[in-house]
Structures are given as C-alpha cells and as structure tokens.
Amino acid sequence: MSVVRIVANLAASDVKGVAAFYQDLLGLNVLMDQGWIMTMGADGLGPVQLSVASEGGNGAPVPDLSIQVEDVEDIYAQAITMGAPITYPLRDEPWGVTRFFVTDPMGRALNIMEHT
Known about the structure:
By secondary structure, the protein is of the alpha+beta class. It has two helices and six strands, in the order H-E-E-E-H-E-E-E.
C-alpha cells in the first residue's frame, strides 16, 4: 500500500470566505465544491509530504501550513495588497528558502516559501 495524497483540512465557519482568501492569495483553482467543503489546488497532484516540527526555524513558531510557490515575492506583494497580516517578514533563510508568514482569516500561520 502507498499513499497517493495527503490533504490539509481546515475547519472554517465561512467556507466560501476562507476559500476566497486562498484563491486570491495563491491563485488556487476550485477542484470540488460541495457547499460545506471546498477543495482547492493546482491542477494535478503534488508530492506527498508531512512535516513534524518543534519550531518553525530561525525562532519562528511552527506554521500550520507550509506552501511552496514559484514566486514568493509575487505572493508577498499580493498578501500586502490584500492587507493580510504578515507575522514573519520576507527573508532568505540559511537553509536555502526565501519565505514569509501570513495569517489566514481563521488565524492560521502560513509559511509561504520558495526554494532558492
């Protein structure tokens, strides 16, 4: 038996509102909409990964989600434009990523990152 995918499920009372945040910030497509649950993503399946951490690196708290993007500076600019709370500013990290933390409407910490 092998794992095909792992999906993060985020509880939200305003499913469409929280989904719109992720669509606006990351440009995700709606893959499924049942009203009570919306699944968004890029077309196709990504690699299966699960991280377990005691801290978020460089003194940051452990984020709820880590999201790898193609252009982190573009997503950072979009977060600023949206007025989304930035809790860890954009920076290059010594382990080879550029990242920032933003908080979603439900208070979850998102580590938005790009491998450099």
